Amino acid sequence: MINPFVKWAGGKRRLVPFISERLPESIATYHEPFAGGGAAFFAFDDLIERATLADLNAELVLTYHTIKTDVEPLIEALNRHAGNHHADSGYYNKVRKSEPAGAIEASARFLYLNRTCYNGLYRVNKSGKFNVPKGRYKNPNICDADNLRKASEVLQKATIKYGPFTRSIAPASGDFVYCDPPYDETFTNYQPAGFNKDDQVALKQMADTWAKAGARVMLSNADTPFIRDLYQSYTVHSLTAPRDINCTGDRSRAAEVLITTYE
Prior knowledge:
Elements: H1 16-21, E1 30-32, H2 39-43, E2 51-55, H3 58-69, H4 71-82, H5 90-97, H6 103-116, H7 145-155, E3 158-162, E4 176-179, H8 197-212, E5 216-222, H9 225-230, E6 235-242, E7 253-260
Parallel strand pairs: 1-2, 1-4, 2-3, 4-5
Antiparallel strand pairs: 5-7, 6-7
Helix pairs in contact: 3-6, 3-7, 4-6
């Protein structure tokens, strides 16, 4: 099984068994407009022939592209980061302040910071600058070359896009859409604009549109009264699963829902 190449708040590795139980019998094209770490995509790659992966995080999307098209130069760049001293914050802060111009170096910076920052958290300030402090890692695994090569191979079947969920995918009849948005009433500072209740409503409206086009849609979210009311016309499956990662490092079990437009 391929591991996600980034640690990601709200990652779905622990929800894969629950998602698997509720997948449709066949998938023409797989769509994921909140790609994040891609845990579901990588877990079900044997069921997927074609895919569209999209996200509104430009650095993440660039890194997906680089892994797909230039994985060996990326591995070399990561190994250069791995050869530096990580016991104090000096090198980390230097990399965090840097603004590499090339795609390979920019992707290597993104992955290095993800592997060495506090709790693997991606967070930006109002100016869109990454602002997470260094984590307390003695020997971080900065370059998992074998996993990156496997991810690159699987990503050959995917079209990778940058953009909002409202425009990044266009599912057709027989397609499957999996949405893992920032959860209601939880941390949403992946982007300066955040993700509020109006965005949750807009996502529900897009799910309606995709379903009318004949696609089967599944969504993850927190089990809150707002989400229950918003999706009352859909099938809502309750579940409780350990948190993968969040802004505080809390790994306690959280009440969540899997919502489907189909039985």
